[in-house]
Amino acid sequence: MFGYIVRRVVAAIAVLIVTVLATYFFFYSGPADPARVICGDRCDPQRLASIEASLNLDEPKATQIADFFRGLIVGREIPRGSESLECSAPCLGYSFSTEDEVTDMIIDSAPVTISIAIGASLISLLVGSAIGIAASLRRGTATDKTVVGSSLLLSAIPYYIVALFTFLIFAVELEWFPRDGYKPLTEDGPLAWIGSLSLAWIALGLYGATSYARYSRGSMLEVLNEDFMRTARAKGLPGRTVTLKHGLRAALAPIATIYGLDLGILLAGTIFTEQIFGLQGIGYMSLEAVGTQDLPVLVGTVLFAATAIVIMNIITDVVYSLIDPRVRLA
User: Fold this and answer.
1) What are the backbone angles phi and psi of residue 78, rounded to the nearest 5°?
2) Which of 53, 199, 224, 278 is the S-S candidate for 177 at Cβ 3.0 to 4.6 Å?
3) Average pLDDT over residues 202-225
4) H-type helices in 137-247, by residue range?
5) With contact defined as beta carbons under 8 Å apart, do 316 and 261 qualify?
6) Average pLDDT, rounded, for the chain
């Protein structure tokens, strides 16, 4: 097991290194001058030179990349006008819009995105899996057909439309939910924290539940036809025991993989959810950075997203290997 984890971690580090290189080249080595993009068309020459110095654009490309990696590992000094600013590891630079360190901005915004992702993903998993498994046990009935049809219909509607109408109806029109932004758990208490996120959890969670309903239904139907299930029934075990003890564990194993990947994607930033419900997380910050052409912030959010996905992939692989030890030999 230890060797399997080491292999997965080494592979993840390699993926992150390639991701950092690709991200850096995409934003800072494209056909457009990154300093000009940040500064705008009517940029003062002195301001342009200051941006180029801050991004090390006046250095050879190899030196730029080496400095960027060094900043991620041990930190570095960033020139800003006539002085240099200390940027601690992992250094992602400073925002040209707010003058704040990008790493600090991500740390401040991450609790919002993490709260949304975990809450919504748990609702999706629990509600969707329960509905899907219930439908699989009633295959061919009106209940099964209703679940399949409803999940397909709802998943065909773009999420941002569902989120927008949910917000307008329940927060604006009916005023059942607050709409004054995120309330930190450590500052305003659990009730205010839950209240500020509940509508976003419901919208994103129930929308995601439609996919889990289909996944769990298909997985359970496949398991119910396996030889070990027929053997268990032939031994005279009660139907409930066969289904819950033997079938459910086997059916939920693939769902665990899907859940891990979905959670990683949600941690990367729920842009529509944060924008519509006024929750200033990673997705909200990245969208603001696009509008202001703040490249250091964009690079930081992309690398945060990549890291979140890679970490969740490792956790998912480890959990799945515990559920099914055969994957360790693959």
Assistant:
1) -115, 125
2) 199
3) 89
4) 142-155, 159-167, 185-188, 190-224, 227-234, 239-241
5) yes
6) 87
Q: What is the pLDDT of residues 136-179, one digit of tens each?
A: 888 889 989 999 999 999 888 999 899 999 999 999 999 899 88
**For residue 232, is pLDDT > 80?**
no
**pLDDT of 47:** 85
Enclosing H/E stretch for 27: helix 2-28
The phi, psi pair for 139, rounded to 5°, reads: -60, 135
Task: At 170, list the tokens.
Answer: 């329940």
d(Cα 2, Cα 9) in Å, to the nearest integer? 11
> In sequence order, what are the residues at sequence separation of 6 or more whose Cβ sits closer than 8 angstroms to the Cβ of residue 80?
50, 54, 94
Lowest mean pLDDT of 55-64, 171-180, 186-195, 229-238, name the range. 229-238
Backbone angles phi, psi at 5, to 5 degrees: -65, -40
Residue 263: which of 67, 70, 116 has the closest Cα? 116
Q: Superfamily for 102-329?
A: MetI-like (1.10.3720.10)
Q: Report how far residue 117's alpha carbon sits from residue 115's, in angstroms, rounded to the nearest whole number.
A: 6
pTM of the full structure: 0.88
Residues of CATH 1.10.3720.10 domain(s) within the chain? 102-329
- What pLDDT score does 112 carry? 94
Q: Please, which residues bridge with residue 21 across strands?
A: none
Contact 76, 70 (CB under 8 A): yes
